[in-house]
Design goal:
mainly beta; 4 strands
Amino acid sequence: MARPVILRQGWRDLSFVHWAVEPDAVAHYFPAGTQPDTFEDRTYVGLVPARRPAARSRPA
């Protein structure tokens, strides 16, 4: 059975930028009882800028 479309979106001008940081430098942003994932004793902060000109929800 086909599902109804509830959201349409298009992504344009997409970038992925990441920085390696010390886990302690960002740990305070995490909920209590959690911690950043690490790889070789570093964690990564990501920024994903994009333009979404076609994002819209289904008409009511």
